[in-house]
Amino acid sequence: MQKLVSYPISVIYYLCFGLTLVIFHPIQWICLNLFGYQAHKKSVDYLNFFLLKCTNLAGTTYTIENREVIPQGVPLIFVANHQSMYDIIAMIWYLRRFHCKFVSKKELGKGIPSVSFNLRHGGAALIDRKDPKQAIPEIKRLAEYIEYNKRSAVIFPEGTRSKTGKPKEFAQTGVKILCKNAPSAYIVPVSINNSWKMVKYGFFPVGLGNHLTFAIHTPLKVSDYSFPELMEKTESAVVKGIKF
After folding, report:
1. How confident is residue 33, by pLDDT bands cut at 50, 70 and 90?
2. What is the pLDDT of residues 198-211, one digit of tens each?
3. CA angle centred on 241, ends 47 and 177, rounded to 5°
């Protein structure tokens, strides 16, 4: 029944979602080229604010738990499980004070209004997961960027999204490169729940009435641990916070 009801709602939702992307594409261009980084960053923040408001049409609500534990004024590496594109939209808006830059597959760097522009010009690491010679320098560049500017990187070490909410095994290489090249950073584990339900029918129709939660766990100072210990603690924290 929910799937049947979702069809007309999804049409309205995707019209609003697509229109938001189209409207903000030139806004981003103007902000970046005429006013610089801070203006562009603000335009991206509000792009994602309005995208979140679009999801409210489908009855989606959000809770971000424990934001107060995130340290400020230091480089951050958010390590999270990955369930859908709504993970990214929510993190950009609700964690906007931390200037999140994503490790993303390079295919997203072209063809999508607003999204591709931001990925190319907003500081993200666009990687080819099948080409380490390309991916490793990109992630290293992002790590050096957050180390110098005291901003944050977001990485989903599962690699691909979970379609059921059940976490996949974490790959370590990307996290290791970020830690090595941002030695003063803190890893912030994040457990994401119910985002996969937004796309449980695929792209269309959208799932209705979902409550997405983002649980922030105790930050781990990179320099306080060996990498194997750091990775074990991070993965354990993320997985324990996932409800599936």
Report:
1. very high
2. 999 988 999 999 99
3. 70
pLDDT in tens, 54-80: 999 999 999 999 999 999 999 999 999
Residue 147 pLDDT greater than 80, yes or no: yes
Tokens of 126: 């666009």
- Secondary structure element (H or E) that encloses residue 211, with its range: strand 211-216
CATH topology of domain 2-240: Glycerol-3-phosphate (1)-acyltransferase (3.40.1130)
CA 112 to CA 21: how far, in whole Å?
8
Q: For all residues of the chain together, what is the average pLDDT?
A: 94
Instruction: Name the DSSP class of 69.
Output: G
Assess contact for 100 and 91: CB atoms under 8 A.
Answer: yes
Task: State the pTM of this model.
Answer: 0.94
Helix and strand numbers, DSSP H then E, in the chain: 7, 8
- CA Rg value for the chain: 17
pLDDT higher at 107 or 15: 15
How deeply is 60 buried, as exposed, middle or buried, from its count of CB atoms within 10 A (0-12, 13-18, 19+)?
Answer: buried
Alpha helices in 74-184 (DSSP H): 86-94, 115-121, 132-149, 173-181
Nearest Cα to 58, choosing from 112, 133, 5? 5
CB 59 within 8 Å of CB 208: yes
Among residues 199, 221, 2, 237, which one has the least CA distance to residue 89?
A: 199
Q: What residues form DSSP beta bridges with 126?
A: 104
Decide if 216 contacts 68 (C-beta within 8 A): no
